[in-house]
């Protein structure tokens, strides 16, 4: 038994006008709840410190830099690191990262119970678009404000297990989980900000969006025999609604905990990392069953290559 | 609109003593039902002509050759081809294939409405084991009796669309769907024979097995925006129970039809191949969103390579 008690810390909406300090105080309140519940790890969503700013179009991209963090930790977030260390609790959250040399990433970090950043991940599967698209009900400009992550899908040995990270749209791509599964990942933590309506197909509303989210996360967990902690920022940000659906998924792909609200809310589950062993040694024993000689297209081509016409 | 009306033709159990001719007459009865329902395509399960023989151990492997077909069509199966052609109906079913040069495969074929075999697929992800394993509640000797498929995951243009095939355990592997998705597949037909109890973990019983099956199929459909027709052989074969769970899944990953019994039963759905377009052009537009530079492990390594110990 290698039990780790996890708090999936969903955040309610963050309005444009809300400061980092206000958000961090909400995060600290959830951390205190997690402490009371005896948790060893708390996981916050993608872009946890600000509103989901890629919905706002700036002709001049540099204007969006106000949403980015040039250092981590910084003055606003230091209290999260201090309190987690005091509580002996690991920590993960997402933020917009501006590097010293001027690159922009959608990033998340993993902090160990000693307050040390042990892992950094930069979102690889950026959804959305680069330019303003008037036919959309709302903009989703991640491809404008971020570059695709340049760190691959690493995993880290910490807290007695093997951990990986992903961010939002990454969770819809089986390659995300498989890259980490091939490194023996036992727990993937991921945050998301997902509009509750498809901005190109209004008929695809909340229930179907939640279904697609859960389907992807549950399949990724099952097919790699890993825990997945998927954490939402939810609710209405300046009139733009994000879905909830924060879930803890076990290595059988089953949801073992789920939030009930669209606000700040933790859900807690004692996750035994040894529960990953059975799947990894049987149906998903990759060494015995995978046939990489037939997977060539997955890495040889990015897009579809149709079969020849008759 | 490119509508194709599909019959997923579940077969009930086939006992060891049952002849090919008896099974084919059951298959013809289902085909007649499909004709009455106006179907253009009928899909039968894996190893549709015989019992699921890999549960039976033969020390001398050649004794298992009685379950294999050396030609296709042959005398026993010719009526399927004739009737499908008469009805103008496409056809797919699985069988154990013995090649002229003595190779053994778990195979399925796709037959067009003119009765011509247009596609052949040989199962790549063979589950189970090679030798008799007394600790199992039942044997699953696919790795003993079959070689892994050597044809990759091709797709075929036929019946106005792009079709692919997979067999049973292939459906648990996201690589299966992705290989075909990267060729623009619009409908995947697959059959399965799945014991309703995990032979290494009795607590994993019918409900959980059905869940894993559906989860994998639905995720594969959604993440590649393709129809999937997944067809069971079900019920108790000489005391060994196979689960049902025959489903038709749309390109949103939703189950649109499902069998209610564990016997011979067709379910019918009019599948519009154009329903695959939206997903392929938006969230799963591979060309815009996939990042193959970060997928290297998927084809470079078969098994897990753990991160270094600290």
TrEMBL record, chains A, B:
Q: Which Gene3D superfamilies match?
A: Carbon-nitrogen hydrolase
The UniProt entry, under InterPro entries, shows: Aliph_Amidase/BUP, C-N_Hydrolase, C-N_Hydrolase_sf
For the keyword Nucleotidyltransferase, the answer is no
Q: Which CDD domains match?
A: DCase
Sorted keywords for this record are: Hydrolase
Q: Does the keyword Hydrolase apply?
A: yes
- PANTHER family recorded: NITRILASE C965.09-RELATED
This protein's name: N-carbamoyl-D-amino-acid hydrolase
What organism does the UniProt record list as the source?
A: Azorhizobium oxalatiphilum
What lineage is this protein's organism placed in?
Answer: Bacteria, Pseudomonadati, Pseudomonadota, Alphaproteobacteria, Hyphomicrobiales
């Amino acid at each position: 038994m290698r039990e780790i008690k996890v708090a999936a810390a969903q955040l309610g909406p963050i309005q444009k006008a809300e400061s980092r300090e206000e958000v961090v105080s909400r995060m600290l309140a959830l951390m205190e709840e997690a402490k009371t519940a005896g948790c060893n790890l708390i996981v916050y969503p993608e872009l946890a410190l600000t509103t989901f700013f890629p919905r706002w179009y700036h002709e001049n991209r540099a204007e969006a830099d106000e949403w980015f963090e040039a250092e981590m930790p910084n003055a606003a977030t230091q209290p999260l690191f201090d309190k987690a260390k005091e509580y002996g609790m690991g920590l993960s959250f997402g933020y917009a990262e501006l590097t010293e040399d001027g690159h922009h990433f959608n990033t998340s970090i993993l902090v160990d119970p000693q307050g040390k950043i042990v892992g950094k991940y930069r979102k690889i599967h950026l959804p959305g678009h680069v330019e303003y698209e008037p036919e959309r009900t709302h903009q989703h400009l991640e491809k404008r404000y971020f570059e695709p992550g340049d760190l691959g899908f690493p995993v880290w040995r910490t807290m007695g297990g093997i951990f990986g990270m992903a961010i939002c749209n990454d969770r819809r791509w089986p390659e995300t989980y498989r890259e980490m599964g091939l490194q023996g990942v036992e727990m993937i933590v991921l945050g998301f900000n997902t509009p509750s309506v498809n901005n190109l197909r209004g008929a695809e509303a909340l229930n179907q969006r939640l279904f697609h989210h859960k389907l992807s996360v549950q399949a990724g967990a099952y097919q790699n025999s890993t825990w997945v902690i998927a954490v939402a920022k939810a609710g209405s940000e300046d009139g733009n609604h994000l879905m909830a659906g924060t879930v803890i998924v076990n290595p059988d792909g089953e949801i073992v905990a789920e939030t009930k609200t669209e606000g700040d809310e933790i859900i807690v589950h004692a996750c035994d990392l040894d529960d990953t062993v059975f799947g990894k040694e049987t149906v998903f024993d990759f060494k015995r069953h995978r046939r990489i000689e037939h997977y060539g297209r997955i890495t040889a081509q990015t897009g579809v290559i149709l079969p020849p016409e008759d």
